[in-house]
Amino acid sequence: MAFYVVQFLTGLASAASLFLVASGLSIIFGVTRIVNFAHGAFYMIGAYIAFTLTERLSGAFGFWGGIVLAALAVALIGVIVEMVLLRRIYHAPELFQLLATFGLTLMVEDLVVLIWGPDDLVGRRAPGFKGAIDFFGQNIPSYDLFLIVLGPVVLGILWLLFQRTRWGVLVRAATQDRDMVAALGVNQKWLFTSVFAVGVFLAALGGALQIPRDAVHHAMDLRIIVEVFVVVVIGGLGSIIGAFVAAVLVSELNAFGILIFPKISIILVFLVMAAVLIVRPWGLFGKPEAPARKTPGLTVNPWRPLTSNERLAALAALVIAATLPLFAGNYALTVGSEIAIFVIFAVSLHFLMSVGGLASFGHAAYFGLGAYGVAFLAKMAGLPMIVCLLLGPLLGCMGAAVFGFFAVQLSGVYFAMLTLAFAQIVWSIAFQWVSVTGGDNGILGVWPEKWAASPSHFYWLALGVAALVTIALRAMVFSPFGYALRATRDSLLRSEAIGINAKRIQWTAFVIAGTTAGIGGALFAYLKGSVFPDNLGISLSVDALVMVLLGGVETVSGAVIGAIVYKALNIWLVSQTDLSKLVLGGFIVLIVVVFPKGIVGMLETLAQRRRKSSPPGSPLLAKPIESAE
Amino acid sequence: MKLAVQDLNSHYGPAHILFDIGFEVGEGEVVALLGRNGAGKSTTFRSIVGLVAQRSGRIVFEGKDVSLRPTHEIVREGLGYVPEERRIFTDLTVEENLEVGRQPKRPNAPHWTREKLFALFPNLGEMKNRPGGRMSGGEQQMLTIARTLMGNPSLVLLDEPSEGLSPKIVEQMVDAILTMKKEGVSIVVSEQNLHFARLISDRAYIIERGRICFGGTMAELDARPDIRDAHLSL
Description:
The complex is a heterodimer of chains A (629) and B (234).
Chain A: H1 2-32, H2 39-56, H3 59-89, H4 94-116, E1 132-135, E2 138-141, H5 142-164, H6 166-176, H7 178-183, H8 188-208, H9 220-235, H10 240-260, H11 266-279, H12 308-322, H13 324-327, H14 330-355, H15 364-381, H16 385-391, H17 393-407, H18 412-432, H19 434-437, E3 443-444, H20 450-453, H21 455-477, H22 480-490, H23 492-497, H24 502-528, E4 530-531, H25 538-551, H26 558-576, H27 580-594, H28 598-610
Antiparallel strand pairs in A: 1-2, 3-4
Helix pairs in contact in A: 1-5, 1-6, 1-8, 1-9, 1-10, 2-3, 2-4, 2-8, 2-9, 3-8, 4-27, 5-6, 9-10, 9-18, 10-11, 14-21, 14-24, 14-25, 14-26, 15-16, 15-17, 15-18, 15-24, 17-24, 21-24, 22-24, 25-26, 25-28
Chain B: E1 3-12, E2 15-25, E3 30-34, H1 41-48, E4 54-61, E5 64-65, H2 71-76, E6 79-82, H3 94-101, H4 114-120, H5 122-125, H6 137-149, E7 155-159, H7 167-183, E8 186-191, H8 194-200, E9 203-208, E10 211-217, H9 218-222, H10 225-231
Parallel strand pairs in B: 3-8, 3-9, 6-7, 7-8
Antiparallel strand pairs in B: 1-2, 1-4, 4-5, 9-10
Helix pairs in contact in B: 3-6
Domain ABC transporter (chain B): 3-234
InterPro entries (chain B): AAA+_ATPase, ABC_transporter-like_ATP-bd, ABC_transporter-like_CS, BCAA_Transport_ATP-bd_LivF, P-loop_NTPase
Pfam families (chain B): ABC_tran
């Protein structure tokens, strides 16, 4: 019995940090409507700076002072980020904001390694809380007890702040209607900045308080952000009480899940989250948001199918791409195959995101599931390659069917957070379930059969599949199903009012996109000859998002160009620098701020400007599957 | 001159909504902006306080051109705005709603306190701690006006204050507007209801399809039934 009590208390102690970070995220979202992906990064910087300060400053005052100073310093960084970056994109679609803050996260991951090195850092114990308390033969660290008390104290302080101060009243008013607050003479800019500072302070404090419990390392941002997303989805985005209750719930589930499913405890959290979403899609303490008309991008050009000339141009580009093996070497062909595979991946996300208006932040899950599907079939069942390629993507399809069912119950940022959390769950399973997936070591030796083994044959295979997939999805955009999907994207209420079953249409789109991504993953497994958890990791999901945005969200086939340009750039970049995340993150931020319409979108705008007299259309020049090289 | 709007043009995306709007409000005057649904009354008000991003023209308030300033600065100059949709903060109590509107005293405008406003709108005084979401439409309308007055404006833009209210509440609204006028607040009130406008206004402008097509005193308007019938009657 005592053991369970101790386990329960450990859970409560973990909840404290989780609550701090989640409440910060909630407060920021409430006012600015930005889901701050970089929140995990601020948490991590808080831990690193607190580590340095507590090492340098001596004594009890040094320790506690260091913790608070670290949180304040990070809040200051947050203020700079808000003023320099976020102020420019408050009116951009929410997707761009998530992506910009993700770009920041990538940059921070490389920066902390540059400053503090790649090794885990073990911090000082908290003065006054070094020992443990004996509880019927079980030890409870006294620092845990401190955290258990701290959680409710912070909750109380926040409550007072929001209920009893003018600032709190203004923040709550702005959460509901920020334009009206401005129309009453309140300077929104500073209100936003101060809210962001408070939110970041809480995140950094959460990180700083973790140093006596956990080692500080450069991957702690992603781990916490996924947990925090789960917490706010369960608790309800924008609710501080919700953040507290859900943080306790998730932490306890983690603490006891370890006892029930030692390997894959995260499954339990997932089940609870799924149950909550079915009953209350807006979270336990959240409020349902009025369905707003959402546009995937900034302006919408009516889409139209390609003219016959454009079709010829696309075909010509495909033919040119197919001649690559006649003059290029093996390395170029392998790169070409990889690019073709990423075209499939990007096109599948584009279908979900631009056509369906559902921006998935975890699309790599289905790509990776396709790859694992192939690996299982080839290695365990020993099936021939062609069968594996046909059946492997079905794993992606099944994953998309299960997760998609829950995800389409939500929309907007909730959808993005949920898909991200799902992807991270799949990643955890692949990473932790070593006996089946090989864990970190992956599954090796998935090589293509003789007919596809040579680089040129494999390149043609990948190119052919990419072309087929692109054509099929394009055809679907202009099919009745595509019309229904686009209608649902543009106005959920209106499309339901004319008899479209919106959720089912969106679910179908999710499954189609997931299966298509799985096809890409299946080819990828054969290209690399192996499968790793990274094949379904967050960074791959974000690669896909960047490809779509780079090409242009509002275009019909911009993703093709986006994939080619981005992948070629990425491969080149990784060969040139160790700081690829820093450069990539900077690149993402730059795209969001400077080229929100993407490459193809920009070309379209230019082309339109040139022929001003003609009626507006979208002269998509071509969808050439050109080779990089 | 309290407020002068000159050559105001506004767009929503590609749609041109307001065309060369111009009108003036004298010190302590109540001016009605009359027009049908969709004529451009609300857009005119939203453009004046800077809530419409795409606009051009001059908005001179107390001798200063405020057209390039952000919304909160325009409002802080003493130009209050009461939106048509009321936009009460539903999660906040009556007192908290008033707190959001609170601004420092202004030398050239009457100073409003909670007590003074509760005297003006007695209903509000009886529900100080009720959340805005649990009030009737009429009470919400009073609260939006009171909330804007907390900013001690010298001029108020009142967007369709009588819309959707019962006759009894409309009477109270007329009294409240006349009290505001007596205190020295200049008012621009947009209305579809000519009878309501007649009770409170000194002068009127008629707006139709984004253009001002009449301006004059209420007596001048009454002398032109042709204009009234062409632009106002249903």
